[in-house]
Design a protein that fits this description.
InterPro entries: Aldolase_TIM, DUS-like_FMN-bd, DUS_fam, tRNA-dHydroUridine_Synthase_C, tRNA_hU_synthase_CS. The protein is an alpha/beta fold. Helices cover 41% and strands 12% of the residues. It folds into two domains: 3-272, Aldolase class I (TIM Barrel, Alpha-Beta Barrel); 283-347, Putative flavin oxidoreducatase, domain 2 (Non-ribosomal Peptide Synthetase Peptidyl Carrier Protein, Chain A), CATH 1.10.1200. Strands 3, 4, 5, 6, 7, 8, 9, 10 and 11 form a nine-stranded parallel beta sheet that branches. It has a two-stranded antiparallel sheet with strand order 1-2.
Length: 352
């Protein structure tokens, strides 16, 4: 089963007025203005294909790519990162997110992504709070304390990638005592970026607490020409609709919630267009979707590696359901196609 075969509503009512208009990232029209967040370890080609088949995402994104690692692989004539699996051939629009702290390295990789992969958008990560990226590599959200370096990075990447638009993703600041998103937003725009995405937490927050959308909204008056995209805690079509109604954002980005609901984009897109919201798939349909997802990963990595990679995805699909813990316990040790199919059949939740 593919997402295209899942149940859809009967649109027996006329649509109301759309709540949100398309946004433009440079010359690129994003319609609907609902973006899929880049998430390390998850938003690979197989996941993006599933999201694309459901529909509703105006712009999809890869996992974030380590620019320095990309250069090393290139110089040593190794295969380019697995995180670029499928990028050259899949439908557009598509964004690739890169991270590092060295302007020339990021500019070099950005140019390669434009020239060799033909990406629609190059996004720079200034928001990742993970220690390996911040403290060890002095990248991601670490750079929020160094606006001058951020500006230099953006300027060089913009120049290298032109005319392909370059965007930036940030958090509110490093800590609650160091919220500087307004100042950073002006640096981002002044350095030539074509859009800004803001996650409504600080780096120190990680993913604790709630995203502060009021703080995101405060940034809007300080941006003169580029769109503001809000990110954080959007786990339902109703919350997406509420974000557009309550806050002056031009677009929204859905992150962790889509990992166990890849159909969320289609639901959100219907809501902001004033159309009936499609229902969630049945658990039987979700089970078949999980097997389809596994098949896509197998085609790239072979069955043994795919079995390991699918452990985390399988847990996402079962999240919040009765029996999810028992399912996770068994799926965590799968090693073969037979194991995967048997465990999904026996233990995947059968009730909500």
């Amino acid at each position: 089963m593919t997402p295209a075969t899942l149940s859809t509503p009967t649109a027996d009512q006329a649509p109301s007025e759309p709540i949100a208009q398309p946004l433009f990232i440079g010359p690129l029209k994003v319609d609907p203005p609902i973006l899929q967040a880049p998430m390390a370890g998850f938003t690979n080609y197989a996941f993006r294909q599933i999201v694309r088949e459901f529909g509703g995402a105006g712009l999809l994104a890869t996992e974030m790519v380590n620019a320095r690692g990309f250069v090393w692989l290139d110089e040593n004539e190794a295969e380019h990162p697995d995180r670029l699996w499928g990028v050259a051939d899949e439908p557009r629009p598509l964004a690739v997110q890169i991270w590092d702290n060295d302007p020339p390295t990021l500019a070099k990789v950005g140019r390669r992504l434009v020239e060799e992969y033909g990406v629609s958008v190059v996004d720079i990560n200034f928001g990742c709070p993970v220690r390996q990226v911040t403290q060890k590599a002095h990248s991601g959200s670490y750079l929020l304390s160094q606006p001058g370096r951020m500006g230099a990075i953006i300027e060089q990447v913009v120049a290298a990638c032109a005319p392909t638009p370059v965007t930036a993703k940030i958090r509110l600041g490093c800590t609650r005592d160091q919220i500087n998103a307004i100042d950073i937003a002006q640096v981002v725009e002044g350095s030539g970026a074509a859009a800004l995405t803001v996650h409504g937490r600080t780096a120190a927050d990680m993913f604790r607490g709630s995203a502060d959308w009021d703080r995101i909204a405060e940034i809007k008056p300080y941006l003169k020409r580029i769109p503001l995209i809000g990110n954080g805690d959007l786990d339902s079509a109703e919350k997406v609709l509420d974000a557009f109604r309550r806050y002056p954002v031009d677009g929204v980005m859905i992150a962790r919630a889509c990992l166990n609901k890849p159909w969320l984009f289609a639901q959100a897109a219907a809501a902001v267009r004033g159309l009936p919201v499609p229902p969630d798939p049945t658990l039987e349909e979700e089970r078949e979707l999980l097997l389809y997802h596994f098949k896509l990963v197998c085609e790239r990595f072979g069955t043994k590696k795919a079995a390991v990679l699918m452990r985390k995805y399988a847990c996402c699909y079962a999240q919040g359901r009765p029996g999810a813990r028992e399912f996770r316990k068994h799926v965590a040790v799968i090693e073969s196609v037979e194991d995967f199919h048997e465990i999904v059949e026996r233990y995947f939740p059968r009730s909500s």
